[in-house]
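Batch manifest, entry 17 of 40.
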Amino acid sequence: MSANKPLGVGIIGTGVISQTYLENLTSFPDIAVVAVGDLIAERAQAKAEEFGIPSWGTADDVLANPDVELVVNLTIPAVHVEVSRAAVAAGKHVWTEKPIGLDRESTRELLAAAGQAGVRIGSAPDTLLGPGFQTAKRAVLDGVIGTPRFVQTIFQTQGPDAWHPEPAFLFANGAGPLLDMGPYYFSALVSLLGPVDAVTARGSRPQLERTIRSGPRAGETFPVEVPSTVQVLSSFAGGQHGTHLLSFDSALERAGVVEIHGSEGTLVLPDPNMFSGRIAYVKPLGSISDADRDGQQWIEIEEQGPATGRGIGVLDMARAISEGRPHIATGELGYHVLDVMLSAQESVADGRTRTIESTVAPVPLLPEGFDPFAATLV
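Output type: structure tokens
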């Protein structure tokens, strides 16, 4: 990559999620989206025309384009590793949607191949680069709640069959609430507290079949292949522990709950599936009465940094490559989170605690003054 021009990006997969990626990436001066590809070339053509992208076609067309320096892999999870490996073989850096892969062996091989080729792997989610999480992480590092002791996270919903017109893939192997939503929560926690040492999990599949409730296929049924409710107990290398609920079986819709409990207070973080949100903390009470519990004062923290969205991880990679520094949402982080989730899945199956063999280096903050809308590579 030349230090005096934007990073050339090609996108493979122009389904629903590509819209928000394209809206954001085409707004960053340090990124030039030069090609889009899809199994259905006409769909790629439509996106190219909508966003003024000069080249479109199939995945092979994107990989063969000499102006593409980094591939954004927005394909379905089942082929994430396959498409990423093809990009690495073509000498391209890769940003992949979550999860980075569906099994340990092929994902390790992908990271090894990238290392040998001298290219980088980045992995969603990049919500942890948003101003909400970055502000909250700085507050923890500044000691606002003292030493973190334990964490709680909650994601519970009736399930995507209530609103998604094609929900079956979200209940198939490689998905469910654990692998579909878990990357947001575990990526944020690992970024904040460091690697996970061990997990124990329990899960259930109360319905073996579910019904599509919206869209043209409403009334059709499909099989549920994975647990639709999972509860995880985690132990972190830093000594903290956590409880995590991920469910598609709850009548009570409640998502985005992330609480960090420390020696000097409790902090609530934004929904890890979002880039912004409420950040606030409470301090311990000196003495407690029932009235104190009801009136405990929340101290709000103002979010710092410009609004961002999906694609900020690609931008961080572009600048990190130019500056010779590590990017933040690395393939190694994606692999460790995958290892944690697969270990939880295995614990659900046999009831045994799993030691996590992988680890990850401390995840840095974005550089001070990081402005997505500044032109730093031109």
